[in-house]
Amino acid sequence: MEKILVTGGAGYIGSHICLKLQESGYLPVVLDNLSNGHRDAISGDIPFVHADIRNRTALDDTFKKFQPAAVIHMAALIEAGLSMQEPASFYEVNTTGSFNLLEAMRHHECRQIVFSSTAAIYGNTNLDMLDETLPAQPENPYGRSKAMVETMIADYCALYGFRSIALRYFNAAGADPSRRTGERHDPETHLIPLALLAAVGRRDGLKIFGNDYDTPDGTCIRDYVHVDDLAAAHVRALEHITGETKPFFDCVNIGTGKGCSVREILMLCREVTGIEFPISDAARRPGDPVKLIANPAKANSLLNWKPKYTDPRETIAHAWAYYCSNARKSE
Ligand code: UFG
User: Fold this and answer.
1) Which residues are catalytic?
2) pLDDT tens digits, residue range 80-107?
3) Does residue 321 surpass a pLDDT of 70?
4) Among 192, 215, 266, 289, which is most buried by a count of CB atoms within 10 Å?
5) Is the ipTM here above 0.85?
6) Is 309 buried (19+), middle (13-18) or exposed (0-12) by CB count in 10 A?
7) Distance, CA 190 to ligand 1 centroid (Å)?
8) pTM for the full model?
9) Domains and their CATH numbers in the chain
10) Ligand 1, CB cutoff 6 Å, lining residues
11) Are 21 and 42 in contact (CB under 8 A)?
C-alpha cells in the first residue's frame, strides 16, 4: 500500500483527507503537533508521528522510517484574522515550516507534494469569480505566508524536479456525512461552527464583522465548500501528480463557484438548528477580503473534480449533525 505523509492530518480537513485516502487504497501517515488537531480525529490504525514541521530532525526520521511516496502538506496556522495580530508566527510555521519540509523531501528524494493553499491569496478584487491566472495580492500575512510557499514549491518543481499541485481552498465547511469526523477547533474562530456554538448557548450570540461592505446585504461573501468534497480533491490531485512523469507545478481552486454572505449563512444556521440565536452587528475584522468566490473550472478540467454538495444548507446540516452526535458529548 502506498504511503502518503499527511502533515496536519489530525486537523479538521486533514482527518477528512485521511478517510478519503484510506477509502482510495492509500496508507496515510500523519505528522501533527496537535496544536489544533486531535489524536482521536484519526483512526488508530493510521501511523501517527507527534512532531512539528519546524523540527527538521523529526522530519528526517519520519521520511527515513516510512519512506512515503508523496506528501499532502496541510500543517499550518490558518486563521486569517489572527495573522493580522501575530504575523511572525504565520511566517515561522507556514513559511519556514514548509521550507523545512521541502528540504527534508529533497534530501529523502520524495518529490511529490499536494500543498494546501488558500483563496486568501487573491485578496480584494471586485471580480465575481476568481481564477488561478490572477496575481497573488493577499490582504493578510496568512495569505502572504501561503503565497510564499507556492513560490518556493514552484521553484522546487522547476529546479529540483518536484511534481506538485497547490490546492487553493475556499471556505471549508461541514463534516463527514457519516459523522466520523468534523470541525473541533479550540478556540473556534470560524463562522459556521461559531454559529452552532451560539445556537446551543455556548456563546452569547454571533457578531457579524462588518455590515457596510459593498455587497448586497453589506456583509462579506465567501464560497463554502464541503470538507468531504475538499478531501476528495486531494486524492484527485495526488493521482494527477503521481501520473505525471515530468516536473510539474500547478495551482487549482477548490470551491463551489457560489457565494454566500455572512448574514445568509447565519440565517441558514438558524434554519438548520431551529434555534433563533442572537445575531448582532460589529466592526469589520481587519484583513478580511470582501468577496472570495472560486471559479472551479480548472479543478474540473484538470482533476475531473466537481463538488458533490452545492447546497450550503446541506453542508451546515452535516456540521450540525456532527456537532450534535460528537462534540456535545464532551460538554
Ligand atoms: N465572521 C463573522 N463573525 C464571526 C466569525 C466570522 O462575521 O464571529 C465572518 C468573517 O469576518 C468572514 C466570514 O465570516 O467575513 C468567514 O470567516 P471565517 O473566519 O470563517 O473564515 P475566513 O474567510 O476568514 O478564512 C477561512 C479560513 C482560511 C482560508 C479562507 C479561504 O480560516 O484558512 O477561509 O477563504 F484561507
Assistant:
1) 142
2) 999 999 999 999 999 999 999 999 999 9
3) yes
4) 192
5) yes
6) buried
7) 6
8) 0.97
9) 3-173+225-254 (3.40.50.720), 191-222+257-330 (3.90.25.10)
10) 78-81, 118-120, 169-171, 189-191, 194, 206-209, 220, 222, 262, 285, 288, 292
11) no
